[in-house]
From TrEMBL:
Superkingdom, taxonomy of origin: Eukaryota
Organism placement in taxonomy: Eukaryota, Metazoa, Spiralia, Lophotrochozoa, Mollusca
Name of a matching Pfam family: Usp
InterPro entries cross-referenced by the UniProt entry: Rossmann-like_a/b/a_fold (IPR014729), UspA (IPR006016)
Annotated UspA domain residues: 13-111
PANTHER family xref list: USP DOMAIN-CONTAINING PROTEIN (PTHR46989), USPA DOMAIN-CONTAINING PROTEIN (PTHR46989:SF3)
Protein name listed in UniProt: UspA domain-containing protein
CDD domains given in the database record: USP_At3g01520-like
């Protein structure tokens, strides 16, 4: 879902969601499906991975942490791709770095 599944210009409405590994994210998306979704919506899922302070970490610890982070993001992407596909919508997942609220607003504006 990192790639655009369909040209977003063909959709009347884009809907952006900030997501993470919590149940709350999944519940919010489900609420959207149950109450607000339109068949021609284009969903943009936005994830801001947790930031770590690597300044005192050894290279091996940094490498391990980055591998774990990559695994988490890949699993999250797979999970939400399946959820969105079940709803028969199209969309994409974007990730960003920084403060989550600021990143979500910035990416939503770009879309």
């Amino acid at each position: 879902m990192a790639e655009q599944l369909l040209d977003s210009k063909h959709h009347k409405r884009k809907v952006a969601f900030g997501i993470d590994e919590s149940e709350h994210s999944e519940q919010a998306l489900q609420w959207y499906f149950d109450n607000v979704m339109r068949p021609d919506d284009y969903v943009v899922l936005i994830h801001t991975p947790e930031l770590y302070d690597f300044s005192m970490a050894s290279p091996s610890v940094v490498d391990h942490m980055l591998k774990e982070l990559t695994k988490k993001v890949t699993a999250l992407e797979k999970k939400y791709k399946e959820i969105v596909q079940k709803s028969k919508l199209t969309g994409k997942l974007r990730t960003g770095q920084g403060k989550p609220g600021e990143v979500v607003c910035k990416i939503a504006e770009e879309e």
